[in-house]
Amino acid sequence: MGAAYGYPHPDPSHRVGAADGEGAAMPAQVLSGREAAAALEAEVAARVASLAGLGKRVGLATLLVGDDQASQVYVRNKHAAAERAGMASFDLTLPADATQDRVLSVVADLNADPRVDGMIVQLPLPGGLDGTAAVRAVDPAKDADGLHPYNLGLLMLGEPGPRPATPSGILRLLQHYGIDPAGRRAVVVGRSFLVGRPLAVMLGLKGVDATVVAAHSRTPDLAGITRTADLLIVAAGRPGLVGADGVQPGAVVVDVGTNRSDEGLVGDVDFDEVAAVAGAITPVPGGVGPMTIASLLANTVAAAERAAPAAG
After folding, report:
1. Is there a contact between 306 and 48 (Cβ–Cβ < 8 Å)?
2. Are the C-beta atoms of 108 and 133 separated by less than 8 Å?
3. Longest alpha-carbon distance in the chain
4. Which of 52, 89, 206, 229 is the most exposed place for a label (fewest CB within 10 A)?
5. How much is the average pLDDT of 258-274?
């Protein structure tokens, strides 16, 4: 981020979570993903409209296999966002007993469909199906999730290409609130290929310039490690994994967890405890989730722009 994103490094005396004039800790700022996602969606919509002026309708397709209720909600939200941005929306579903060959056949059809610029295989797939193989079957140029091995390879090389949607959304959320990772010690808790591993790489790229520590639920003295973070991102899938004792006063805390409980969705961070210590924190829900969807749209319109003929 930093100068590469068009805003200066913040004055340390005005960092998020600084004390007030009497030395009392200020309440943590809540970083609304809904607000930041709306801003990103507006940018995407403008780009979609520009392509429409060239005669190109941007299209996003999803493939949902089975009847998992959470996945159905995610897919509905993605299509609603696509339609708000002016994209064509293609919603394909297969029954839970679909074969692997059938799943791969639908992916191949979407790869060949000129109306589709970006596509998503909604994970997880039902038991017995290979989600990794389905993701690998997606045309890398249409990979709205940014999870194809080819695109992850581009990320490792620092070359342009679709970036994983959730890590991209996190960086954009920080940018929206003027939080520059450059020079900060960032601790990423979680090592999935969906979030933790690519996010650690992205935070360390030139132009972002954080100093990154990668940790996970089995890291010895995890709270001791997370307490060293100026920027703490928790994506381990363990409800309440991080409490106030694992957070440095004034730190920026991004909670990626979406865990179902009797009280509804909860994160990997104990929000009430940590909000009393942190300088800024994302809520669950309403934090990272909307940014993931907005980033899927950004990847889709970028794919359409790469494929569109030059104007004039």
Report:
1. no
2. no
3. 66
4. 206
5. 91
Q: What is 2-31+177-289's CATH topology?
A: Rossmann fold (3.40.50)
Q: How far apart are CA 177 and CA 300, in angstroms?
A: 24
Cis-peptide into 249, omega within 30 deg: no
Is residue 59 within 8 Å of 116, Cβ to Cβ?
Answer: yes
Catalytic residue among 117, 143, 145, 209: 145
Angle (CA) 268 1 40, round 5°: 70
pLDDT per residue as tens digits for the range 277-303: 999 999 999 999 999 999 999 999 999
Domain boundaries 55-139, CATH class: alpha beta
How far is the first Cα of the chain from the last one, in angstroms, to the nearest whole number? 33
Length of the chain: 312
The CA distance from 47 to 294, in Å, is: 13
Contacts of 68 (CB under 8 A, 6+ apart): 124, 126
Topology agreement, domain 2-31+177-289 and domain 55-139: yes
Q: Where are the domains of the chain?
A: 2-31+177-289, 55-139
**SS (HEC) of 76-114:** HHHHHHHHHCCCEEEEEEECCCCCHHHHHHHHHHHHHCC
Q: Has 145 been annotated as catalytic? A: yes
For the stretch 37-68, pLDDT in tens is: 999 999 999 999 999 999 999 999 999 999 99
Integer angstrom CA distances of residue 80 from 67, 75, 92, 113: 19, 9, 15, 21
Name the catalytic one among 122, 142, 180, 209: 122
Burial class (CB in 10 A: 0-12, 13-18, 19+), 84: middle
How far is the C-alpha of 18 from the C-alpha of 225, rounded, in Å? 22
Q: How many CA atoms lie within 13 A of 228 on its CB side?
A: 14
For 100, 107, 113, 245, 287, the CA distances from 119, given in Å and listed in that order, are 18, 9, 11, 41, 23
Contact 65, 122 (CB under 8 A): yes
